[in-house]
Amino acid sequence: MFPWIMKFIPGPHKTVLVKWEKLQLFIARVIENHRRDWNPDKPRDFIDAYLNEIEKHADNPTSSFNDENLIVSTLDLFFAGTETTSTTLRWGLLFMALYPEIQEKVQAEIDTVIGRSQPPSMAARESMPYTNAVIHEVQRMGNIIPLNVPREVTVDTTLAGYHLPKGTIILTNLTALHRDPTEWATPDTFNPQHFLENGQFKKREAFLPFSIGKRACLGEQLAKTELFIFFTSLLQKFTFKPPHNEKLTLKSRIGITISPASHREQKGKQEESACPPLKARRLLRSEGTNRIE
Ligand code: HEM
């Protein structure tokens, strides 16, 4: 009710507030750099285009186009666009390591359609129904935003006979769709056949990881492109397997999104505290087998 009060209360949330301020300062500097060589006729990116809007509405004191909103909107794009896509990819690699026969089929399709030397492009997706189905199934099972993003009713509303007074918080249950036993042949098991019919990719209405309607994910197309390009590029070059004598599970961790729990979490802090690039190199060596002869 009084979010500003949190500033004055001690506790771990203070770290978040400090980091939030640092991020805002960082973006403010990026915006200043943009302003230096900004050309309104040639917007290079989101910040340039937003600066145009600030300029256009400069005489309107009630305009929402201002520096503060530019900073927060830029950060929104980073928050909404990074963790979501990377977490989905992590689920993808985990499912590939758990289902080697499915991974082999994806790699066979990559070898046939793209080959091993040229980098994957979106043009190939049309001819890769199996890989496309696997990525969709990763999103269905990963179900990274199970209750969608909370929304608030802005005016008194009646929905399906229920009265929703202004200010009501709405959570939509995407899990109910993604695990609906009347929609999916094996709702709780990874099964790319859910998105295939006679060997062709099949769209499913009960699949809504990006939500639907006016406020649906605005990054959907970008996310789909990233998922296809990163997933195929990784499987073109590597085969993902559990490390020797280690068992992988589908246990998850609750955070901003639902992400795979590290199978090494129980093994003590040593791995966790390793310097991140070193840790990444070690994991790649032990979990990804190079496919290049
Ligand atoms: C696998 C990746 C992603 C998933 C599963 C995902 C999912 C979602 C969901 C469920 C929502 C809430 C929609 C609603 O309330 O009805 C949302 C909103 C949003 N997403 Fe994504 N997203 C992904 C990637 C991205 C990317 C790459 C970007 C941009 C760079 C992005 C930007 C946004 C923004 C700005 C919103 C808020 C839209 C609004 O309030 O009108 N997302 N996303």
From TrEMBL:
<dbReference type="InterPro" id="IPR050182">
    <property type="entry name" value="Cytochrome_P450_fam2"/>
</dbReference>
<feature type="compositionally biased region" description="Basic and acidic residues">
    <location>
        <begin position="284"/>
        <end position="293"/>
    </location>
</feature>
<dbReference type="InterPro" id="IPR036396">
    <property type="entry name" value="Cyt_P450_sf"/>
</dbReference>
<dbReference type="InterPro" id="IPR002401">
    <property type="entry name" value="Cyt_P450_E_grp-I"/>
</dbReference>
<dbReference type="GO" id="GO:0005506">
    <property type="term" value="F:iron ion binding"/>
</dbReference>
<keyword id="KW-0560">Oxidoreductase</keyword>
<feature type="compositionally biased region" description="Basic and acidic residues">
    <location>
        <begin position="262"/>
        <end position="272"/>
    </location>
</feature>
<feature type="binding site" description="axial binding residue">
    <location>
        <position position="217"/>
    </location>
    <ligand>
        <name>heme</name>
    </ligand>
</feature>
<dbReference type="GO" id="GO:0006805">
    <property type="term" value="P:xenobiotic metabolic process"/>
</dbReference>
<dbReference type="InterPro" id="IPR008071">
    <property type="entry name" value="Cyt_P450_E_grp-I_CYP2J-like"/>
</dbReference>
<keyword id="KW-0479">Metal-binding</keyword>
<protein>
    <recommendedName>
        <fullName>Cytochrome P450 family 2 subfamily J member 2</fullName>
    </recommendedName>
</protein>
<keyword id="KW-0408">Iron</keyword>
<dbReference type="InterPro" id="IPR017972">
    <property type="entry name" value="Cyt_P450_CS"/>
</dbReference>
<keyword id="KW-0472">Membrane</keyword>
<dbReference type="GO" id="GO:0016712">
    <property type="term" value="F:oxidoreductase activity, acting on paired donors, with incorporation or reduction of molecular oxygen, reduced flavin or flavoprotein as one donor, and incorporation of one atom of oxygen"/>
</dbReference>
<dbReference type="GO" id="GO:0005789">
    <property type="term" value="C:endoplasmic reticulum membrane"/>
</dbReference>
<keyword id="KW-0492">Microsome</keyword>
<dbReference type="Pfam" id="PF00067">
    <property type="entry name" value="p450"/>
</dbReference>
<dbReference type="GO" id="GO:0006082">
    <property type="term" value="P:organic acid metabolic process"/>
</dbReference>
<feature type="region of interest" description="Disordered">
    <location>
        <begin position="259"/>
        <end position="293"/>
    </location>
</feature>
<comment type="similarity">
    <text>Belongs to the cytochrome P450 family.</text>
</comment>
<dbReference type="GO" id="GO:0020037">
    <property type="term" value="F:heme binding"/>
</dbReference>
<keyword id="KW-0256">Endoplasmic reticulum</keyword>
<dbReference type="InterPro" id="IPR001128">
    <property type="entry name" value="Cyt_P450"/>
</dbReference>
<keyword id="KW-0503">Monooxygenase</keyword>
<keyword id="KW-0349">Heme</keyword>
